[in-house]
Design a protein that fits this description.
Elements: E1 2-7, H1 9-15, H2 19-25, E2 28-32, H3 37-49, E3 52-56, H4 62-67, H5 75-88, E4 94-101, H6 105-108, H7 111-128, E5 132-137, H8 140-145, H9 147-152, E6 157-160, H10 166-174, E7 179-183, H11 192-200, E8 206-208, H12 228-241, H13 248-263
Parallel strand pairs: 1-2, 2-3, 3-4, 4-5, 5-6, 6-7, 7-8
This protein binds zinc ion.
Length: 268
């Protein structure tokens, strides 16, 4: 088995018809992000056929997309009220992806809206004791600011596509946050910081993800769950290069265990 800690199966299905059949054939369990009814319902049906952890949140990029008229003004409110409904109905394995995207000026213009959304979604995770899946770009400082909240009532916190340093990861853990750090195709695309961090962190804190369909490898239009094994193989090679003796099978197993620790409460 392998575990894909962050993906968007509904969006993937629009590009790759047989993605779910392929996932089952390759024996890949995944965590699925959704932010509206249509994608959540698709994921819920897929989860009934092959194990999938169901996540839902208002994506931090959504306020900017609404400001650009990509979606109607009611979109954020609808998504948020569905989050409350799903959490209350015990239909979620995690709240996410939420967080902060301050990557460029269009996103930074919505910082206040992102903060309000993050706080409300943090409260939902606290109330229902759900893990949080975080999308953080250029905003790691915010996570230190919310550190006390993240450590007290949140069972685990997944940093999807983690782009911070190993030192920052270590200090989040020292703060008492039960944090896991997820790495994807960035380590195959020569992203120096992700490579260094992925090689340095403790095996017990590592997750791997494809972010399918959004982080395609070089020459590919999109990523799919099948990319998880080359990602894990690369991570094992990086860790060997950093002096840790690490086979890809052992790393796959360790990341599966981490995945089940975070998302596995309701999984078979
Ligand atoms: Zn994503």
């Amino acid at each position: 088995m392998a575990s894909d800690a962050h993906s968007h199966p509904f969006d993937l299905s629009l590009l790759h018809d047989g993605a779910e059949a392929e996932r089952a054939r390759l024996n890949i369990v995944c965590a699925a992000s959704a932010w509206r009814a249509e994608d959540f319902q698709y994921n819920e049906r897929a989860a009934a056929r092959f194990p999938m952890a169901l996540c839902f949140a208002v994506h931090p990029q959504l306020p900017a997309a609404c400001a650009a008229d990509e979606y109607g003004p009611e979109t954020v409110r609808d998504s948020l009220s569905l989050l409350h409904e799903l959490a209350a109905g015990k239909r979620l394995d995690a709240v996410g992806e939420t967080g902060f995207d301050l990557f460029d000026s269009a996103f930074r213009a919505t910082e206040e809206a992102q903060e309000a959304l993050f706080l409300e979604q943090l409260r939902v995770a606290e109330e229902y004791g759900l893990p949080l899946v975080l999308h953080i770009r250029r905003a790691i400082g915010k996570m230190f600011r919310y550190g006390d909240r993240l450590k007290s009532k949140i069972p685990s916190v997944v940093f999807h596509s983690y782009s911070g340093t190993a030192d920052e990861a270590a200090s989040l853990l020292r703060r008492g946050i039960n944090a896991y750090f997820s790495f994807g195709t960035a380590i195959l695309l020569n992203h120096k910081r992700a490579i260094g961090t992925c090689a340095a962190l403790d095996e017990g804190r590592l997750l791997f993800e494809t972010d399918a369909p959004y982080q395609g490898l070089r020459g590919k239009a999109f990523s799919s769950h099948a990319d998880i094994r080359p990602i894990i193989a690369e991570a094992a090679a990086l860790r060997n290069g950093a002096g840790k003796s690490c086979s890809k099978d052992a790393l796959e197993k360790a990341s599966d265990e981490n995945f089940y620790r975070v998302f596995g409460k309701r999984l078979p």
